[in-house]
Each structure stands twice: as structure tokens, then as C-alpha cells.
Amino acid sequence: MMNPLIPLLVAIPLAGAFLTMIVGRFITGIPRYMALTTLLATAFISFWLLLAGEASPSVYIAGGWEPVNGVPIGIHLVHDGFSGLVLCIISLIGLLSVIYSISYMAWYTSENFFYALFCLMIAGMNGVVLSGDIFNIFVFLEISAISSYALVAFGVEKNELEATLKYQVLGAVASFMILFAITFIYWSAKTLNIADIRSAFSTGDRGSHYVLIQVLLLTGFGLKAAIIPFHAWLPDAHSSAPSPISAMLSGVLIKAVGIYVIIRLFFNMFVITEGMSVLIATLGALSMAAGVFLAIGQWDIKRLLAYHSISQMGYVIMSAGIGMTLMARGIRPDVAALAITGGIFHMVNHAAFKGLLFLNAGAIEYSVGTRDLHEMGGLAKSMPVTSATSFAASLSISGIPPFNGFFSKLIIIVAAVMGRFYLLAALAALVSIITLASFMKFQRYAFYNREPDNIRKEIKEVPAPMLLSMITLAVVCLLLSLLALPGVRDSVLTPATEILMDQMKYSSQITGI
Amino acid sequence: MTVIVKKTTQLIAGIIFLYGIYIILHGHLTPGGGFAGGVILAGSFILLILAWGSDFLHLVREEQGSTLYENLAILVVLFLALSGLLAGVNVFFANWLPHGTPGELLSAGILPLYNIFVGIEVAASILTIFLALIIFKEEVLK
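Above: the input entities. Below: the C-alpha cells describing the complete assembly.
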């Protein structure tokens, strides 16, 4: 029996988006509540699926097209431990961003377009994460990418339009490379289903184009995930978007359409080779180190946070690369599992604290009217809640116990040492220290410095819906450290790791052979 | 444009519109279908707008109408997909209507319905894009 909740995760946000466009035309003020209802529904479904879900992957075949002679012909939607976790991040951060937008987006006009595009972006990301076939990943990727292009440009000022142009050009290059790789895969494996491609690749002669496919996909999704040689669009796009959208882009979008797909394809679709694993680990370490050095010199709050996103995503990619390398060498599977668990854990944590930091930056912009650290100071007195929550998030991202960032970085560093990647372990610790320095700068200049002399207006704390989202995310930052406890980890993180580690389980369970 | 162009497009546009409807309705029998037919439908409207000039229509009102049609059509497509979940078979996108004899106009179950609404959706959205570009150009010229 197929679980009918799985396609609803895509259908509900789509229906929400188009209903918002119709109803919002006749009744003003209602789109925000429709988006809120939509996100509440998807959040409920995704948490229900994760917590009450079966251990094995749950497959949904759209249209009921059963496999013929063991060859899957329908569109498969797959819900397993890893995708369930990412779905929960998407809907939780999405829900809190919508609550935040209720006050924040009062600045802007065309409310119904904003919420419709927001729901469309959620639908696209849910689709990418659920899709079990590579062409539908591309289709849903384009849905979420095109709505995010429009959302980045939502302010229609000069900066926003320049940022979105850059984002669109690089996004189109990425989409072209992904589609090119998909045609190569279809030509050589004669199928588009990820599990079926896996069995085709693991048995037959792979040919010389195999490496080309891997490099094209790594480049394409690397552009979406902003790994360092492909990162040029991210600081502009993430800093120009409205703040709730920045939180979505940085907290969720680069993970759902970038990191998630890279990890899924390289673990569950390709046969792991040592060369590609070392390349992925190197790219991760490079973006981890270079991202933080680019970040520390920034004075625009949101640009600083955007560069930190590159750096923190480097941790995830690097630990996935360490796990792949150990699996390719066939040694220490326990350490490989530890590295992958650390990477997934850090990905979840990053969604919470980076979402919170962008919401804090939005709150500062809302009250003070600037994003330049030079032009603010002493906000701890006038904005106590923003100050306290951003302090929690800063400690989280810099890896200070008892916040969640500490535990995930600890797991990553311990796994790197146990796998004898001493250089990468030292680099990860060093980057964490520089991150701390950079966030001490943010805290000092924004909240604890003396106020600048030319202060123009009385600075007040932001409205209640914005406070609610920020406080909730700060609590989530603390609670996520519980995932490091053995009992909780076994029920949430371990299924995600297992589905990536077990080489044959994914493909055999989905094709049903 | 001259009277000759205006009269000719008036004569041709109706035929193009009919051809678009033909392509959509025979989507499950012949090459083409909702998308191709929808583009042809939008083409007939665009031809009229090009021949008669942009001051002939109240463009903004027209654009709001086409956006509304677009949203309604995509909602109906989504509802048809969800109807598979509701209609006893419990499968998203299921083709639960009777399939009929292959080759006849009324066959293939739910597919002609998808084609019709996808056709409306594509026609309305391409018309919307075209109108948005004209409106943008007029705003820039002002």
C-alpha cells in the first residue's frame, strides 16, 4: 500500500500557490494566512512521515505504473530517512519564514505574488527531495530556481536586479550542465530512475563518459550549492533578497537543491570511486576555508552571513567526501558512517542557525534601516530579543557548547581524525575559530558598541510575529543538540546515514528486486 | 497597420484558433496535444494584437483576465491529478475514467481532460507573457 501523504507534499504547496493568486486578487490581506495554512499542512505531514515513518524507504509510484519486468517505468517518489530529514528542515524554516514575513513584508507591495512564489518554491524543493528519478529532479529544480530568481528580485531596485541577473545566468549554466549530464545518463543507462541507473552502472561496462557525467553533475549541482569555485552568485543574491527569503535561500534552498542532490546522487546513483571522493572532499575543504576568509572582511551583515553559508556548506561537503573516500578504500566503515552522520547533522543545524541569523539581520534592517555594521551599535539595549537570539545563533555557528553547532563540528572533526585526515581536521578546527572571530565582530559592532552620534530615530524592538519566529528558531538551535544523544540519534540521524551507506539497499528496495 | 493587414488577420485568426482546438482535442490520437495546441491558440490572439496595435485593447485588464484563466486552469489540472487519490483507486495521477476504444475521439480516460486544461493554461500563460512585455514597454516609453 502506497502512502498517499507523499504526493500531497508536492500537491498542497502547488495548490496553495495558485489559490493565493486567485483569492488574493479579490480579497486583500488573505494571502499571508493561506501561505501559513499551506506551510502548517506540509510541516505536519513531513514531521508525521519522519516520526511515524517506516524504517525502510517508502516508495510512491505516480499514476500507479507498476514496474514491467523489473524495469521501473513510472515516476517514483521516494521517502526515506535522509529525504525525510530534509523535508522537515524545508517545512520548518519555511513556516517560520512565513510567520516572520507577516510583519516584514508590510514594507513591500504585491503581497499575493510574494506568497504565491514562496509556496511555489516550497513545492519545487519538496519535489526535488522526494523525486526518485533524475529527470524529475531537474523539473522540480527549475520550479524552485525560477521562483527564487523572482523572489531575489522582489525589491526591484538596482542592486536586486543586478543580483538576480547574475543568479539567473549562473543558474541557467548549471541547469544546462545538469540536463546535458541527464542526456548522457539516459544514453548510457537507458533509464532515468536513480535506483535503476545504479544497477545499470554497477553491472555493465561504464565507459569513458562516466567521469564526464560525474564532473558535469558535480559542477551543475555545485553551482546550485555554491561550492567555492562556483560561488560568485551567492553573496549578491542572498544579501539582496528580502530577509525571510534570504533565510530560505541560505537555510534551505542551497541544501535541498544542491547538497542533498549531490550526496544522494554520489552515494546512491554512482558507484563510489576514490578519485571523485577525494575531489569532493578537496572542494569541501576549499570552500570551508576560503568562505570564512572572504567573510571576515565584510561590513554588510547579510553579505557576511552569505559568505559564512559557503564556509559552513564546505563542512558538509567535506565530511561527505571523507565518508566517500573511506568507503571507496573499503576501510573503517564505522568512521565513514560517523563522518556522514556529522555532515548530515551539520546540514540540519546550519538550517536552524543560519535561518535565525538572517532573520536577525532582517530585524536589524527593519528597525535601524541599514545593513552596514559601521552605522549601528548599542542595539542590545533597544532590541533585547534580537540581541539575545542572535547571540545564541552566533554561538551555535561558531561551535560553542551547549549549542548544536558544537556537536556537529565535534563529530566531523573526530571522524576526520579517526580516518587519519589530520590536515582536514586541523583546518576544520581553524575555520571554526575564525568563524568565532567573525561573529564576535558582528556581535560587537551591532549590539555592544556605543551608538553612532548621528542617530536619527528612536529604535524599537520588532513586531510580535518576527519575535515569535526568532525565539522559536533559537529554541530549536538548543534542542537540536539533543540529536547528538545516542537514543535520539539512532531514530533520526542513523536511518539517514544507513540509506547512504548501504550500497545495494537503496536500489534493490526501490526497484523491488 | 493598413486595412488589408487588419482584415486578413481577422479572417485568419479564427481559423488558427479552430486549428489550435483541433490539436488539443486530438492530443491523445495525433502528434501535438495540450502544449502545442495552447501555443497555437495564444498565437491567434497575439496575431490580432500585433495587427490592430496595442491601443486597441485595454491591455492591463486583458492581462489580469489571462492571469486568472491561467491560475484556474492549473488548479483544475492539479484537481484532476488529485481526483485519482479520491476516486477509489487511491493513486495520484491515476487514469480512473473508462478508457474506451483506442483511436476514437472519446477514449483514453482522463487524458483528454488533462490536454484541454493544459491547453488553456499554456495559451493563457503565453498570452500573459506577451502582454506583460507590451505593458512593460509602454510604461518605459512613458
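Note for the figure: The mean pLDDT of chain B is 85.
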